[in-house]
Design a protein that fits this description.
mainly alpha
Length: 69
């Protein structure tokens, strides 16, 4: 389970989740200079950690034989 392929797939999922969370935290109605970037980064980091933990518990289909692409 904890092969190089597993970690590559799990970290790719975590990066995607973090990016999606960060984009979701940026409000549409305010200027870019008004965004609380520390808050956005902390939410994105937590989402990435949760994604990696989920991958460890549930697994990553992309890391199994014939899974993914």
């Amino acid at each position: 389970m904890f092969t190089k392929q597993f970690w590559k797939a799990a970290l790719a999922r975590a990066a995607h989740t973090a990016a999606q969370s960060a984009v979701g935290m940026i409000p549409v109605a305010v200027g870019i200079h008004e965004v609380d970037w520390l808050h956005v980064l902390s939410v994105a980091a937590l989402a990435a950690v949760m994604s990696v933990l989920k991958s460890i518990i549930v697994g990553v289909p992309e890391a199994t034989e014939g899974g993914g692409e």
